[in-house]
Known about the structure:
alpha/beta; 2 domains; binds guanosine-5'-triphosphate
Amino acid sequence: MLEAILLVGGQGTRLRPLTISTPKPMLPVAGYACTEHQVALARAAGVSRIVLGTSYRAEVFEDHFGHGENVGVEMIYAVEEEPLGTGGAIRNAAAYLTCGPNDPVVVFNGDVLTGLDIAGLVQKWRDADADVALYLTRVEDPRPYGLVPTDSIGRVQAFLEKPTTPEEIVTDQINAGCYIFKRSVIDSIPTGRTVSVERETFPELLAAGRMVIGVVDDGYWLDLGNPLAFAKGSADLVTGKAPSPLLTGRTGQAIVEPSAKVDPSAKLTGGTYVGHNVVIGANAVVDGSVIFNEVQIAAGAKVTNSIVSTAAHIGDNSLITDTVVAERVFVGANNELQAGARIFPDSRIEGCAIRFSSDKS
Ligand code: GTP
């Protein structure tokens, strides 16, 4: 039996205002919470028991997953009264594990979209007799991430969090947010205080000469931390560029829930997801966007690379680009919201053209 810990307790500040009511890992990407995609991936790799490390809006996870009856995996909740950071959350969740000290435990950040071969990573952890195996991915610009250089046999040499100078950018390999831990290593993390695995636990393991390996996997990977990445992740799932066991046979230009009413002249492209009871009017265009349930998009509106949350209304001929529209927002006719606009819940936007600094036009 393989056990996993999913870290889902963060505040998701970069995705506000969507995360005011819903924790980031529970926001729908291509119609399913990121956590649901991860649970399906873990299950396919043989994981049968998952401890969710929750804190912020912990009740939302329990209400949705219960004991895991509908997802085919036993679900347990380790709730932190105060967020304990990534390491503290893993340590807190360990109280609910049943495996032995030398067994592997899969640990996942809750906002990572990936097709990682988890079983393959566990096998590499075994082959190397490792204390920890880290999933690494390569990115063009590693500056916002934690860099993880490795030697010729894959042993991790350092952890360099969010480098700033060119000298610090020694590799394009970054920590991709999934690990295989030996259970006893988790048990050695201090209890009852905030701990970061990236800044504290991993560097300490290296300093103590423990076997920490990095495994580069060049398959699909995306951190859904900010709104543009969130919309892209959803679009990639809908088009099939990002794999998910939940969407097999449904991928294409758009996924539209059967209860949605889409005018035949409307165009849905670029991996758009259209939720339950959505109404989309004549000649509207929705491209690469996530449309939550109960939304109305009126005739001639154009929504591009945006997230429109539950029960929002987008008026006739309005243009919405690279924007987050929170729940129950009313956008009247002929408005323009562009390049990083974030509209908070229940707002009313009329007679408005909002353009942000990244929009030079
Ligand atoms: P931002 O506030 O936008 O940075 O997002 P975040 O709060 O989710 O932080 P970050 O993206 O760095 O977190 C990575 C993962 O770890 C996410 O899945 C978080 O839910 C999770 N996480 C971060 N801090 C904690 C914590 O204190 N407790 C638990 N249980 N999970 C955490």
